[in-house]
Amino acid sequence: DWYRVNINAVVRSGFDLDSPQVSVAPAGLFVHVAEVRGNRARVDQAAISLSSVRPVRGWMSIKTGDSGIIILRPSRQANLDWPAPDAPLSEQMRFEQQQKD
User: Fold this and answer.
1) Residue ranges of the alpha helices (H) in 1-101?
2) pLDDT tens by residue, 35-83
């Protein structure tokens, strides 16, 4: 399932919170969650817009441990029929503009 990152979040190479940090996922990023274990989610794809998906590997928290702020929110936008990656750029841009309106 696709989720949207709600606040900047650390992505780690492994499930454990002390595993090496591989990146920081910025707020607004789409991530594809391949697996959930407790409060941790394994992500395998990420995208600024869903017409430009790229593979990623890492684990991130679903909500913060201290205040329980939700980091990942299910994305309704991601469940729409997106243009194929090889669709003409004009079609992709038109679709993304419709999502903003």
Assistant:
1) 89-100
2) 999 999 999 999 887 778 889 999 999 999 887 888 888 877 665 555 5
Amino acid at 56: V
Q: Which of 25, 21, 23, 22 is nearest to 5 (CA)?
A: 25
Alpha carbon distance, N-terminus to C-terminus of the chain? 24
Looking at residue 47, its amino acid is A
Burial 53-90 (b: 16+ CB within 10 A, else e): beebebbbbbeeeeeeeebbeebeebeeebbeeeeeee
Torsion angle, alpha carbons of 6, 98, 2, 88, to 10: -130
- The torsion region of residue 98 among left (phi > 0), alpha (psi -120 to 50) and beta comes to alpha
Neighbours of 31 (CB within 10 A): 27
